[in-house]
Write a structure and sequence with these properties.
nine-stranded mixed beta sheet, globular, Rossmann fold, alpha/beta
Length: 309
């Protein structure tokens, strides 16, 4: 293991004895609790999440990631798997499939036979929008393409080829997923996004208040003051207007009361793809830009990718 890396494995249940000094009813509850874990479905008991770090020469540091591994990953050491790269939103991190409860959701879908076995890998994206920054100091897109994807696919027995690779994201991660898939459609079989940070024009606050906290966050990626040409060149909306998206399967949705107004960008993307006669699946659902919305609609994109692998 490289210097500075760390390994966290979730999914192994540990039991311990508890002294029965409380009322009998309390001890009975402990017994039921023990039975609950004893008779959990085997896929839940052995499916796991592994968190570690990959050394990056491009970023000059180790970068954390987590990967959701199905039960069959450990059961058959010769088996290879399709892979979904799941990109988190701004303010979240590589563990969002764990702390948000999405890992349990994945296991439940698999237990019900609604999701096939595939890998789900999430890198720590910080506030990068998953692109190379304007000043060239943070080449995150280069890191993904040249280091992260090859590292993950080699170390976790990912099946090779476009047909076995997909990408998804929420909010900032939705921007990143669409950007990467539209810029490099030869790499991905399918792409999905929930409440993607799609903004057609530069927000006024970037120009009027460049030192505000949110402007500084975006400025670290798009420049201070922001470079309009750079913004437009990386916009998933502009990429969708010209990219060769033949064969790329596309799914995206957004809440109709998104707190950041991203429903307008989602609708614009739908119109662009429709005008180009590019097949896609777009839904505008009731909801805001919050964890409850993502939890309600992530199963749809997971099943979307599962059907296409």
């Amino acid at each position: 293991m490289s210097e500075g890396s760390h390994l966290i494995v979730l999914g192994t249940h540990h039991s311990s004895y508890t002294r029965c000094s409380r009322p009998l009813f309390r001890c009975f509850l402990y017994f039921l609790y023990f039975l609950y874990f004893l008779y959990l479905p085997s896929s839940f008991a052995s499916g796991r999440v592994e968190c570690n770090a990959v050394p990056s020469k491009i970023l000059s540091r180790n970068l954390s990631y987590c990967i959701v591994l199905p039960a069959s990953f450990d059961a058959d050491k010769t088996k290879h798997f399709p892979i979904l790269y799941a990109l988190h939103g701004l303010g979240d991190n590589e563990q969002f499939f764990v702390h948000s409860g999405l890992w349990n959701l994945v296991e439940d879908l698999r237990d019900r036979g609604e999701l096939r076995d595939f890998l789900i890998a999430t890198p720590a994206g910080g506030a990068t929008f998953y692109i190379n920054s304007k000043d060239g100091k943070v080449r995150y897109e280069d890191f993904l393409l040249q280091e992260f994807f090859p590292f993950i696919e080699k170390h976790y027995r990912a099946s090779p080829g476009r047909a076995n690779r997909a990408i998804s994201g929420v909010s900032m991660g939705g921007y990143g997923a669409l950007h990467l898939a539209f810029r490099h459609p030869q790499l991905f079989n399918s792409v999905s996004a929930h409440s993607a940070a799609l903004i057609e024009k530069l927000p006024a606050f970037l120009l009027d208040a460049p030192q505000s906290p949110r402007a500084r966050v975006l400025g670290s990626v798009f420049g201070i003051p922001p470079d309009i040409a750079f913004w437009n060149a990386n916009s998933p909306l502009n990429l969708a207007r010209s990219a060769n998206l033949a064969g790329l399967k596309i799914y995206f949705d957004c809440g109709d009361q998104d707190d950041f107004g991203f429903e307008a960008g989602a609708a614009a993307l739908g119109k662009i793809l429709t005008a180009r006669k590019i097949p896609h699946e777009f839904h505008l659902y009731p909801g805001r830009h919050d964890p409850s919305y993502f939890a309600a609609h992530l199963p749809a994109s997971l099943q979307f990718h599962s059907r296409l692998f």
